[in-house]
Amino acid sequence: MNIFRSFEEACGIRNPVVTTGSFDGVHIGHKTILQRLKMLSAKYDGESVLITFDPHPRKVLYPETAGKNLKLINSQEEKLELLSEAGLDNIIIIEFTRDFARTTSEEFVRDYLHGILHAKVVVAGFNHHFGFNQEGDYKQLWALREKYSFEAEEIPEQEVMHETVSSTKIRQAISEGYIQKANAYLDHYYIVMGKSERYAYRNNFYEINLAKIPLTEECKLLPAPGIYAVSLKTVTGNSRGMVIINETSEGEKEVLLNLFEGDPASYGRELIIFFHKRIHGSIDLSNQPESARWLKAAKTEIGELIY
Q1: pTM for the complete prediction?
Q2: Crossing angle between the packed helical segments 179-186 and 167-175, to the nearest 10 degrees
Q3: What is the pLDDT of residues 276-299, one digit of tens each?
Q4: In angstroms, rounded to a whole number, what is the distance separating the alpha carbons of residues 236 and 238?
Q5: Considering the domain 189-306 in this protein, what is its CATH number?
Q6: Phi and psi at residue 207, in whole multiples of 5°?
Q7: What is the DSSP string of 73-117?
């Protein structure tokens, strides 16, 4: 997958089939759009293109309200990993600023989609809006398609378990610890990527080595505190284990990992952690007898769950 940081960098893409959006979570609705991009790219002998923005527009436009405490399902690194796995050809990451936010929807189509990229097809997700004050929508794309020489197509709403899929609902499920529900919406396991570090912890009642996974972005959304069954992918292979989402005395969440086989901590390695299921709620690691009982029980249950 090619990664561009401006429209000008991406001006040589062949017959671009384009969509726009944050694609936070790369959920089942996003995947439906990506699959359609791939089909249209083959039809027009072109390449699929996602235009996305960093930081998230809400962070820029509503820093004291909707964007103030906004947490995202994926870090930028995680999103790029998921989009690459989904088969996207090109991603254009545009720095979102207040100046850029004043671009009208027709200016966006005229100057960027048509003027620089020469888009062959523009695909819009259900209820997608773009441009200044979110004035642009699929109806406008349809009306502009002849003027700017592109085809327009809309992807219908997606549902899982009779509930409309949205990044907002996925964030809520993750925040409340309903990982299996979130995974169903995502159509893949919720992930955390990072590099493990040593974590000073000793439980005299149960032998366990924990590694801490520092977050690369403070706006990364973490699940509710508790014990989670996980599998892992590293440069040396796959493994399984459990993750403790722990709340510090400062009220911040941290990710603590225990592997069941191989290097017990994998310190310094790049990891992708796949969350399967929440096994137990929040535990107090300072209460050694109680935490030892739950950690031992969780390890037994997780071992039977994943393999």
Answers
A1: 0.90
A2: 160
A3: 999 999 988 888 888 888 888 888
A4: 7
A5: 2.40.30.30
A6: -75, 120
A7: SS-HHHHHHHHHHTT--EEEEEEP-HHHHT--HHHIIIIIIITTS
